[in-house]
Amino acid sequence: MPSSSLKPAADALHAARTKRQPIPRISETYGIRTIEDAYAVAEANTRRAVEEGRRLSGRKIGLTSHAVQQQLGVEQPDYGVLFVDMEFVSGDLIPADRLIQPKAEGEVAFVMGRDLERDSVGWGRFLSAIDHVLPAIEIVDSAIEDWRITLVDTVADNASSGLYVLGAQPRSLNESDLAECGMDFQLNGRTVSVGSGAACLRHPLRAAYWLAQTMSRLGQPLRAGDVVLSGALGPMVGIGRGDALSVCIGGLGRVDCRID
Questions:
Q1: Are the CB atoms for 168 and 161 separated by under 8 Å?
Q2: SS (H, E, C) 94-149
Q3: Which residues contact 60 (CB under 8 A, 6 or more apart)?
Q4: Alpha carbon distance 85, 200 (integer Å)
């Protein structure tokens, strides 16, 4: 697809995010058909954001559920970028006016302690580069009307990224069995989503390793200090202004926030 066809799609998504007004599927409006073109649209908006002064803080992984992959007809996850201004810490108030049609997920977050190499990265080097682990809430948000997304729509829209909240107490990798850890998501004091580490590509570290390998092959390796949101441990939950969110992950602790 010529670049002249990608720019209008990127501009439309940028405007939708800026104005907080969802738009129809760009896959239909602008004829975005392939995953490669979708990532090109997302990259255009990433470059725009950096040029506007926003700073990258890491990456997020999406589509880590086998059931969701089957639904969208894919065999691997997708990824998006995180920015510093998207980050909050447990106990913070989350501004509702920064969101369009938010949902939330409980996740395991990794923070890198060392840079990884370009081209390739091995399992041992990857594990040794992780500094600590945190419970996290990812607030996903779509610029596509009514969340009627296809694979290319969510990829082009930065993997439906919104904001994210990190736990306050870091843990080391050996403090918890991340595949077996249970997740309990409470909304306004009531459990609305449960899951486990095994729901995320069978193990959150497997998801994070997929990302590390992918970014290294693309010449954009993970760097020290990068946050990696490894994917949902249970079903997404719709949220809105005034809601109190609390996620407890076994062995990692709790992360809380309120939508203000």
A1: no
A2: ECHHHCCCCEEEEEEEEEECCCCCCCCCCHHHHHHHEEEEEEEEEEECCCEHHHCC
A3: 79, 80, 81, 82, 138, 159, 161, 164, 228, 229
A4: 26
* DSSP structural state of residue 164: E
Task: Read off the pTM.
Answer: 0.95
In single-letter form, the type of residue at position 64 comes to T
pLDDT score of 4 = 63
What is the C-alpha to C-alpha distance for residues 16 and 141, in angstroms, rounded to an integer? 12
Cβ distance 30 to 12 under 8 Å?
yes
CATH class of domain segment(s) 56-259: alpha beta
**Helix or strand run (H / E) with residue 70:** helix 66-72
Q: Which of 107, 108, 88 is nearest to 96 (CA)?
A: 88
Evaluate whether 204 touches 218 at the Cβ level (below 8 Å): no
What is the spatial distance between Cα 161 and Cα 143, in angstroms, rounded to a whole number?
A: 10
* Contact criterion met (CB below 8 Å) for 111 and 225: yes
Tokens of 142: 């779509």
pLDDT greater than 70 at residue 114? yes
What pLDDT digit, counting tens, does each position of 136-170 carry?
999 999 999 999 999 999 999 999 999 999 999 99
Residue 129: partners with Cβ closer than 8 Å, 6 or more residues away: 112, 113, 114, 115, 116, 212, 222, 224
Strands 103-112 and 130-140: antiparallel
